[in-house]
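re: that chain from earlier
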Amino acid sequence: MSKTNRQTIIWIGALIVGALVGYANIEIINNVTWFVASAYTRLFQLLAIPTIALTVISTMVSLGKESNGGKLFKHTISYTLLTTIIATVVGVAVFFIVAPDNLPDTTLRSAEGDVPKNLENISYADHLLNVIPNNILKPLLEGNVLSVLFLAFAFGIGLSKLPESTGRTAVVNLFTGLQDLLFLLIRALIWTMPVGIFAFAAQLMVEVSADVVVSSLGKYTLIIILGNLLQMFIVLPLLLITHKINPIKAITAMSPALLTAFFTKSSAATLPLTIETAEQRAGVAQKISRFVLPICTTINMNGCATFIAVTSLFVMQNSGIDITLAQVAGLILVSVISAIGNAGVPMGCYFLTLSLVSGIEGATGVMGVILPIYTIIDMVETSENVWSDSCVAMLTNKKLKDI
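^ sequence. v structure.
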């Protein structure tokens, strides 16, 4: 049995054992698994921002003077747009096929108080303006993924254009050395990940048995999850097949990252593992993975695009707004653009959607009703996002295998 297969079996075993332990719902064990799961989440968050910054800077320095740099960027953006548009269209199609019923007025009124009021009036323009930092350290300290990416591109491109000198060499060597150290730490964390998966699975089962995430909105929840699953297991595999990539081998190779994304609910926090898994298990070239994946983690949000489109339609329907074909087309465009500008953090799509539906004066009480079940939606969405990121990296790798 290969090392890859052994690792996959161990991870799945940890998942099953953790779920069984969580289902037993023993308080002292629950406290331990909560502590371990929280510790792993914090460790991934700790590594995420440095991973984005260092990988993008180092890759831009190495690609800055190569003709293939432009091709790499073009393929990354093209596949990102393609997968995000398809995901949005699939979600909208499922919405009209399933045709969810409206929520009772009493439910909407009672849920108004659950809507996070401090975020309801944040405009999308404000969200985009926050991407542009006015302080170099602030984005790193606050974990602002888009701002960090902005700075990393600026530093990387700037270094690539500097003339050769002792100073330039010293700075590049510093970033390269820090990146090597970072990936050493990532590999050490991955080696211990069965413990983390065990704890994550146990905590999820505790929440389910405690009735935290079992309540649902029926057809609406079905639409969101079905749209995500269709994108994950039908659309993206077909895209891989058209490029002569075996989707079963690909998803098996990326399974550690997908499981971690499911439990952490953050594609940014999962990024260190996604890069390492893509390189070591899926065979993606280092130059490609360390350029494509940090960008995709920030802008390739298939699950988020589905959520924005479907939820906006659900809010419009419950608000008595007539939904026309032109509105649907416009909503698809807005959802794609909004998802691209959303950072890969927990509940990022929820708050972004809230600001959008507030702008059309929709029934924001719907967002209050959705809030209790968003945890499970976020898990599925994040796994789809990371899987889509991985597919974009593999497709780009296939196109530019000689880079």
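Confidence is low (pLDDT under 50) at residues 211-216.
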